[in-house]
Amino acid sequence: MHKTDDLTVLRMKDLKDFIGLSRSKIYEMLDPKSKRHDPEFPRQVRLGTAAVGWYRGEVVAWLESRRQQRG
Question: Is the confidence at residue 71, as pLDDT, over 90?
Answer without folding.
Answer: no
